[in-house]
Amino acid sequence: MKVHIDSRRIAPYLFLLPFLIFFAIFRLWPIIWSFLISFFQLDDGDISGFIGMSNYITIFHDPTFIKAIWNTLYFVVVYNVIMIILAIMLAVFCNSSIIGGKKAYRAVFFSPIAMSLPVVAVVFDLIFARNIGFITSLLGMFGIEYNYRIFASMTGAMWAVILMRVWRGSGYYCAYFLAGLTSIPEELYESAMIDGANAFQQFRKITLPLLKPMLIFVIIMSTILSFQLFDEPWILTQGGPANSTLTLQMYLYQTSFLKQDFSKGAAVSYVMTLLMLAASIVSVSRQKESSSGRK
Amino acid sequence: MKKVLTVLLCSMLSLALFAGGSGESATAESAADNGKTKLEFWTWLSSDAAIDAYNQMQDDVEIVKVQMSHADINAKLAIALQAGTGAPDIYQTTQRYYPQFRDSGHMYDMTSVVSDIMDGYPDSLKDLVTYNGQIAGLTPDVSPSVMFYRADIFEEYGIEIETFNDLIEAAKILKEDGIYMLPIFNPAGSWGANAVGMLLGSRGGNYFTADGKVIHDNKDLEIVLEFLNTMVAEGYGESLTFFTPEFWGEFKAGKIAAWIMNTAEAANLKTNAPELSGKWKIMPTPRWDDKEQALSGYWGGTVIAVTDQSENPEAAADFVKWLCGSVEGQVWAGKTWSAVPAYEPAYSDPFYQEGDPYFSGDNIYDMILDTTPFHYFDWASVEMIIGEKLDLMFAGQLTPQEAARAIEDTIAAETGR
User: Fold this and answer.
1) pLDDT at residue B18 in the model
2) Is the ipTM here above 0.90?
3) Which residue of B has its CA nearest to A25?
4) Can you identify the CATH homologous superfamily of domain B2-142+300-342?
């Protein structure tokens, strides 16, 4: 029997084969494997016994895990709201026709993202330092004494982390919004001005609605990344004081690598995945709802 | 023809990609350019000079240092040992985390290589590295506590310290001029459990009994927490995250007058505040006022071991034996990371009789007092629990007594000890 091979049909799949093989081994299989081991006991790296939902039940009974969820959600919401508002404001500023030296502003706003996270953490450590820091020196010039150690404060430490992230992220996402703004036709603003719309009305009725696709993209990307918050609090507070900056990613690290409980760690990672998925779905659906409501 | 070429090209691509990660290639890499067999050594310490000295004596092997934090070593090693691949030939970890690797059964049995030197170690360290009757590692160093202090500040204010109460009294005077007596880990993080443990040790106390049971109603723990709480609440100690730029900045700015810490941090101090050379001196850990004898607390020290994934375990064990179990290796450890020798014959070397100009000529080894055994169990959990309770105490939400009870009860509940 003669087998006929249609090269034009097979060729694309053959070219894709290297990627597919690597994707299956290094992406797909770890995802499946980690899901499986979250239901099994691990003994020296090998599955030794089915334990059902035990890991999931255990972590949800752990107050530290609940605290980590709360901290993470708090960070995700507060950080994203502040960062996105600031990023849009920066983008509108950079896109304004009355501003000179836009390229310089863009470069300055974008530059923090080029710094590595540990370096940013170190810089902010020195900004906030109680006795030798930038804030102390600045306020000292006006005779004001600064005696607050923010990283030792259970209420202040998370805000320091949020500020750090906002400083680093707003310029980066500003670049996305700038790309969105340049795609808005100038004629829309001209006709709005003829109709008597002021700058705020133009922003609300033209800029924001037409930025919506970019806004959704930024929200999803930023939400996913902010769920993975780890470096800054780990360097500056190790999750303290009293777990007030402990995030899910840090809890996952502690569980998997410090306590070496990979099975429970896998369960934590799947809870994280579900939370990220839920947050993204909620964000997108709310954006879609508000878009369709306007039509 | 075109069809055949397409299939061939794709097949070659796939094969080439897989060949990149093959074991054959990895084996080829293990032979150094100079023909020597490379042995990978994971450590976080600046031990290059010691490694270079060993390499120069070797014709067949070369130790290649891979430097990463000890947290990274623990994390990567845990995965590599469980996965059965990716572990180094040799690694160094802290004594408090070592038991989890020792008990994994994935350490090379070094007994035949090192049995002749084991008499040079105290029993507690021999017990630490022994698993099922086999020697599964060696200790290059121990980390007893001393007190580093700024001689210029102490002299200016006429401070003389013998006991912990003296520290508090002197701190009251220094506070008036904006100087803190000690840096205090706040937030506590993983440092908290170790620093409290060190102070506990300086009282002869422990978190656990020798057989791993939590000590309840631990009066030593209460007294240590009371001291730390006083330092923070009264503003005598400066709350800092240890080893951040702010931490070293406060030292350099002359804001910190003293530091009760393990001996290994002498090297850290010299590296991060070289401009303070000659301003520091060292004294033994102060005595607790309710105790007759002053003791050094214990921070933990380190262990170096060979994994069962090493293709040249005997050669790897020879290096570990040289560094941890020979006078020459121990002197190199002292020179490179200010190691306090675990191998007792090393103290006979003149190196350990010398003073250090950075510390105004003081010899750190002369400042080490007797220690009592300190017991480590489930240390990752212990660090997290103690860190949280200390933070709550520093925030005024727990009294020292309540914090002590909360630490004991939570460790017992979480670890079953």
Assistant:
1) 42
2) no
3) B18
4) Periplasmic binding protein-like II (3.40.190.10)
